[in-house]
Design a protein that fits this description.
Layout (H helix, E strand, L loop, with lengths): L1 H9 L3 E8 L11 H8 L2 E8 L5 E8 L7 H13 L4 E5 L6 H11 L19 E3 L18 E2 L16 E3 L13 E6 L8 E5 L2 H4 L2 E3 L2
Parallel strand pairs: 3-4, 5-7
Antiparallel strand pairs: 1-2, 2-3, 6-8, 8-9, 9-10
Helix pairs in contact: 1-4
Length: 215
């Protein structure tokens, strides 16, 4: 449980290693033979290393509620880290942990300041969006078809109206005919009982006769 929360808390900045032998961290030349004999058989619960260069950043130990049973071992571990002036952080063993608290304690002991949160990004307004509609020549008028006369969708911008510099054109919406798989274009009925309504019209309308209401 702790390892999962530890990686969640600082995995963006540090690589996490578990049960690292002290001899992999401390040089034997700095200690007596007796001390080095103890170092070679001991390990630290977790080690954080900087992701950029894999340099040592911090040691972490989990303390059980009955720490008095391991007091001598813990004191030796503390002295070894203090002698090399390396940070060692201790956490109590618990059933659950908060990744935010873990991150705050680690960044505190390492004197790392979190950058201030930037301003929230705002969604573009409707005025900053331009909708383009692909238009093809109107299909021939056929008896019984609800599009006796079709015209361009006047809701789109006219060619003479160039978008403002800050406006980003939106890619045309595409749709395929469910009957013949030809490309369809969006058009508006200009007359008849369906006048003013938008339809998806098959480019192969003369043979396909497919027109689907938009929406």
């Amino acid at each position: 449980v702790f390892l999962e929360k530890l990686e969640e808390a600082v995995g963006d900045r540090f690589a996490v290693y578990g049960k690292v032998h002290l001899s992999d961290i401390f040089s034997p030349r700095a200690y007596t033979r007796a001390a080095m004999d103890r170092i070679t058989v001991r390990h630290v619960g977790f080690v954080l290393c900087n992701k950029m260069d894999r340099s040592f950043a911090c040691g972490i130990e989990l303390d059980e509620s009955s720490r008095s049973l391991h007091e001598a071992r813990d004191e030796f571990l503390d002295r070894v880290f203090e002698s090399d002036m390396l940070p060692l952080l201790r956490f109590k063993v618990r059933s659950s942990y908060d990744s935010g608290d873990i991150r705050a304690r680690i960044f505190g002991i390492l004197n790392i300041s979190e950058p201030p949160a930037g301003p929230a990004a705002t969604a573009p307004t409707a005025a900053a969006r331009v909708t383009e509609i692909t238009v093809v020549p109107a299909a021939a008028e056929e008896p019984g078809i609800p599009l006796p006369d079709v015209s361009h969708d006047t809701s789109s911008a006219t060619p003479a109206e160039a978008p403002a510099e800050h406006e980003i054109p939106k890619a045309p919406e595409k749709r395929l005919c469910p009957k013949c798989s030809s490309e369809m274009t969006r058009r508006k009925a200009a007359s008849g009982p369906q006048a003013g309504k938008l339809y998806w019209v098959c480019k192969n309308y003369k043979e396909c006769k497919t027109a689907i209401p938009v929406g």
